[in-house]
Amino acid sequence: MPLFELGFPELGEGLHEGRISKWLVQPGDTIQEDDAIAEVENDKSLVELPSPVSGKVVEIKVGDGITCVVGDIIVSIEVADDVQLDGAEGGNKSSTPPANAHTPAIQSSASASVSEPEAVPEKSAAVDVLAMPVVRRYAREQGVNIASVHGTGNNGKVTTADIDGFMKRQAAALTQLSNSVSTHRTPSSTIAQARGEESEERVALPMIRQAIARTVVKSKYTAPHVTLMDEIDVTELVKLRKEVKPVAEARGVKISYLPFIVKALIVALRYRPQLNSSFDEAKQELVLKHYYHIGIMTDTDRGLLVPVVKHADKKNMWDIAQEINVLAARGRSGKLSLGEMKGSTISITNIGSVGGMFFTPIINYPEVAILGVGRITEKPVFRDGEFAVGQMMSLSLSFDHRIIDGALGQQFINDIKRLLEYPYLLLLDV
């Protein structure tokens, strides 16, 4: 039966590599076209990889946690004789099952219909170890001396499964040793523990975390940041939200303060369009955006993601609230698409949700400003000639000082303050 060898696909424009986070199938499994076969992590998100064909999984070429580039062969699938594979994206068709090893090859295109020649398994110069390059790389990444691993493949070839089995046996042995030491600890070992044994653990940085690191470094050292901080008396906003919550719930919408802030932000941007822009350094031009795509910084287990509410100025409060909730949920579950995280013109980051107040948010480059929202606290305020208890929200605005001066930044904050202190004005401005 013919064999289909799936090459690692391009997951998005300009994304030439990704990491196999987890295989969802095993050798011997029967799958259908479009079945999810693996979870793949790239710089932007965690996505499910669908199979382009139906058939039986013969061999998984790349283990969990391995980074692949576009074209690397990652899985072999046996298909029916009458299946047409020429148009199957990312795969090679072979008329016979694979020989001992089919090297993951970098293809000139993610869509190829002719198999690459098979490569001879790499042999270690130090010891007689047969292993494919991807297996050797996997061993290095896992900190395993491949010469210590018994190969179970043809001719004693070491596979990724052998590496995994070796690590499991090592872990089991260490656990057994640890239990033995705990049970039969000698006085000297007790003293050593009391003195404090220093231990370290190395954890591979997820690709998304690496991308975040590159982005914030570029932003911080490209755009000279200035941060202004202020407080807003949002007593009326708190009342308004309380009043509309039953209406929102009747619509099936959970409404937070963010939709009001988004609306106020859009009105303020219309007054101060310089903050809804990006800076083209090569041409030394300010690119003013006449549309309003609001990025919402979202904290997830995999890092800070920025889903975007597109054309927020054309949406009502309920639509914005619902979209924020849906995008945040998709972000936390790793289901955001690349399109849902592209194109923001200005961003909001809300540290108040975890109890923070004032901070210095880093601009989501190449945007020129970011609004930081802190928690709401009760404070004494002087209002109408007497002291009262006010609901005070803290704001932090960071901006690119090449484009925005301090006076303009403060005027922008003042616009937002006016709208959130008297939220009914939003009904007049939007």
Observed structural traits:
21 strands, single chain, 9 helices, Dihydrolipoamide Transferase, Chloramphenicol Acetyltransferase, 430 residues, alpha+beta, six-stranded mixed beta sheet, five-stranded antiparallel beta sheet, OB fold (Dihydrolipoamide Acetyltransferase, E2P), 3 domains, elongated
Polypeptide structure, described:
With 430 residues, the chain is of the alpha+beta class. The chain has three domains: 3-119, RNA polymerase II/Efflux pump adaptor protein, barrel-sandwich hybrid domain (OB fold (Dihydrolipoamide Acetyltransferase, E2P)), CATH 2.40.50.100; 130-179, E3-binding domain (Dihydrolipoamide Transferase); 209-429, Chloramphenicol Acetyltransferase, CATH 3.30.559. 29% of the residues lie in helices and 26% in strands. The protein has helices spanning 133-142, 160-183, 187-195, 207-222, 235-250, 258-271, 317-332, 406-421, 426-429, and strands at 3-7, 17-23, 30-31, 36-41, 46-50, 55-60, 67-69, 73-78, 91-94, 122-123, 130-131, 225-233, 277-280, 285-288, 294-296, 298-300, 303-305, 308-309, 346-350, 369-383, 386-400. A six-stranded mixed β-sheet has the order 12-21-20-19-15-18, with helices on one face. Strands 3-6-8-1-9 form a five-stranded antiparallel β-sheet, with no helix packed on it. Strands 5-4-2-7 form a four-stranded antiparallel β-sheet, with no helix packed on it. Strand 4 and strand 5 form a beta hairpin. The radius of gyration is 28 Å and the shape is elongated. The model is unreliable at 95-127 and 180-193 (pLDDT under 50). Residues 108-118 have a biased composition (Low complexity). It holds the Pfam family 2-oxoacid_dh. Keywords: Acyltransferase, Lipoyl, Transferase. This is Dihydrolipoamide acetyltransferase component of pyruvate dehydrogenase complex.
